[in-house]
């Protein structure tokens, strides 16, 4: 009878202690979160409840499974399994705690910083640092789990004996991957491109949506995703419209007849700008930029706070100016004679 009650008592007691400890920790974190609304750390740490309970329960069972007589015929397998679970759950808990700390620091920095460019820079660095820490924890965890097997220790000794040759081979084979890895670190701390930046790569316009240690994702205006190796942004030229500030100047070109009333068009352009909310009021201009035998080229410029507003501003101004010319000055629109209407000369 004792052989049955003791394992059941240990299992039930471990589960009870785990549930009570998890509930108590969650209660304390909720109270701390209510007392300190200036930081989200305590609320984020509540996501660690499940890995904390797994660590606690596994630790209790790992320390008492022999005394409790849980599967005595397979005690070695039970101990090895509990050890592996404990190592994995400790790594899980460490990653969750690191994530909570990183997210809390970023949230507090974003709340007190008005410079959007700096916020995007910190966000990029924090994201990459978090990925590096997670990768290191996973590698250490897997290595620790493998070292619990005596056979793997022997394999490790033989691998160390040939580490020089393997290092050279791995370095040659992984040259591209290592290049992307160092490029990712260079982007994170060199501040060349950040999450949320508006960029033009390979004649595609979009916003940087994700940056990892090996690749970068750009979301285009039509919601496509372009995935590129991060080494592209350290080895080739590209346009970063958010660098040094998000403000931009938009350009509108109009091909008009030589008789177009440019001064009236300039007045109408200024009036339209005051009615378009995307114009930020910094600057504007309208000039005759070029002339051809058939038309003149009107170049109108106006400023906006970011790339999205510049696009909307250009489209709106272009539409209204053409509509205004067609209604009030139709003769200003270019008159191109179709080829079939050209009189033929006699032969």
What does this structure look like?
The chain is an alpha+beta fold. The chain folds into three domains: 1-112, no CATH class; 116-244, SH3 type barrels (Roll), CATH 2.30.30; 248-332, Alpha-Beta Plaits (2-Layer Sandwich). 60% of the residues lie in helices and 16% in strands. It contains eleven helices and eight strands. It has helices spanning 2-35, 41-45, 49-68, 75-112, 116-147, 150-161, 163-173, 175-190, 232-235, 262-275, 307-328; strands at residues 198-201, 204-211, 215-220, 225-229, 239-240, 248-256, 279-291, 296-304. The strands form two sheets. The chain has a five-stranded antiparallel sheet with strand order 4-3-2-1-5. The chain has a three-stranded antiparallel sheet with strand order 6-8-7, covered by helices on one side. A hairpin with a 2-residue loop joins strand 1 (198-201) and strand 2 (204-211). Helix 1 packs antiparallel against helix 3, helix 3 packs antiparallel against helix 4 (75-112) and helix 4 (75-112) packs antiparallel against helix 5. The protein is elongated and about 105 Å long. The termini are far apart.
Q: What is the element layout, followed by pairings?
A:
Blueprint: H1 2-35, H2 41-45, H3 49-68, H4 75-112, H5 116-147, H6 150-161, H7 163-173, H8 175-190, E1 198-201, E2 204-211, E3 215-220, E4 225-229, H9 232-235, E5 239-240, E6 248-256, H10 262-275, E7 279-291, E8 296-304, H11 307-328
Antiparallel strand pairs: 1-2, 1-5, 2-3, 3-4, 6-8, 7-8
């Amino acid at each position: 009878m004792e052989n049955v009650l003791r394992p059941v008592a240990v299992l039930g007691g471990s589960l009870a202690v785990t549930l009570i400890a998890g509930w108590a920790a969650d209660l304390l974190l909720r109270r701390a979160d209510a007392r300190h609304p200036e930081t989200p750390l305590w609320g984020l740490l509540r996501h660690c409840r499940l890995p904390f309970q797994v660590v606690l329960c596994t630790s209790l069972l790992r320390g008492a499974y022999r005394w409790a007589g849980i599967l005595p015929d397979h005690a070695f397998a039970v101990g090895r399994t509990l050890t592996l679970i404990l190592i994995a759950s400790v790594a899980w808990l460490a990653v969750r705690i690191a994530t909570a700390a990183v997210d809390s620091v970023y949230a507090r920095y974003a709340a007190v910083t008005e410079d959007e460019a700096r916020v995007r820079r910190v966000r990029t660095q924090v994201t990459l640092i978090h990925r590096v820490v997670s990768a290191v924890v996973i590698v250490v965890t897997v290595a620790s789990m493998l070292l619990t097997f005596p056979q793997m220790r022997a394999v490790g000794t033989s691998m160390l004996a040939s580490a020089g040759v393997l290092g050279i081979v791995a370095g040659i084979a992984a040259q591209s991957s290592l290049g992307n890895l160092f490029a990712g670190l260079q982007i994170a701390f060199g501040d060349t491109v950040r999450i949320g930046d508006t960029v033009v790569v390979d004649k595609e316009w979009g916003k940087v949506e994700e940056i990892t240690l090996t690749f970068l994702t750009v979301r285009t205006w039509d919601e496509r995703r372009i995935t590129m190796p991060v080494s592209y942004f350290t080895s080739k030229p590209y346009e970063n419209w958010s660098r040094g500030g998000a403000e931009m100047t938009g350009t509108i070109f109009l091909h008009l007849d030589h008789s177009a009333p440019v001064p009236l068009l300039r007045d109408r352009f200024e009036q339209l700008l005051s009615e378009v909310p995307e114009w930020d009021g910094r600057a504007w201009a309208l000039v005759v930029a070029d002339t051809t035998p058939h038309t003149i080229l009107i170049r109108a410029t106006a400023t906006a706070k970011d790339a999205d507003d510049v696009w909307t501003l250009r489209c709106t101004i272009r539409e209204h100016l053409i509509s205004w010319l067609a209604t009030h000055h139709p003769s200003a629109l270019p008159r191109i004679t179709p080829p079939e209407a050209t009189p033929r000369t006699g032969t």
